[in-house]
């Protein structure tokens, strides 16, 4: 099977990876990615298949393929660096909306209720037009990081 991304390390890149592996004082994933690239080098002495690399280094074949792709598209330095996990999250509540949420949670509960629920607070924030949509979980996380709740013993 022809691979779309073929790793061809230069002599300098190979020496750089081998030096990194000999030093053995780097992030574990950086060492793993270096080993993957050495084994995947088409011009190198090993020329292992993705399956054999995955089995030997105890990773999935998609990890090996992803590292080959990162090397071919972005170069050695990027391919050796571990990616940051997760996706960037946009803030639902800015500072002003958070302040309104805290003030609302400290206000008197609606008629027929003893206290505010997270869902009630979320619905009221949408009704008041501070946000287009808001989940009760976002309300919980926002209120958790403040000590301004009426039931809190801490005062800041």
From TrEMBL:
InterPro entries: Homeodomain-like_sf. The lineage of its organism: Bacteria, Bacillati, Actinomycetota, Rubrobacteria, Rubrobacterales. It comes from uncultured Rubrobacteraceae bacterium. This is Transposase.
């Amino acid at each position: 099977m022809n691979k779309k991304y073929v790793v061809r390390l230069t002599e300098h890149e190979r020496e750089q990876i081998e030096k990194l592996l000999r030093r053995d004082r780097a992030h574990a994933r950086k060492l793993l990615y270096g080993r993957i690239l050495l084994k995947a080098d088409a011009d190198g002495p090993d020329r292992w298949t993705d399956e054999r690399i995955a089995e030997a280094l105890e990773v999935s074949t998609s990890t090996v393929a992803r590292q080959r792709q990162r090397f071919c598209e972005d170069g050695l330095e990027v391919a050796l660096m571990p990616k940051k996990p997760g996706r960037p999250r946009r803030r639902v509540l800015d500072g002003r909306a958070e302040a309104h949420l805290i003030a609302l949670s400290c206000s008197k509960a609606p008629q027929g209720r003893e206290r505010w629920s997270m869902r009630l607070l979320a619905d009221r924030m949408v009704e008041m037009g501070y946000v287009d949509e808001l989940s009760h979980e976002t309300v919980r996380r926002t209120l958790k990081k403040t000590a301004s709740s009426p039931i809190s013993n801490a005062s800041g």
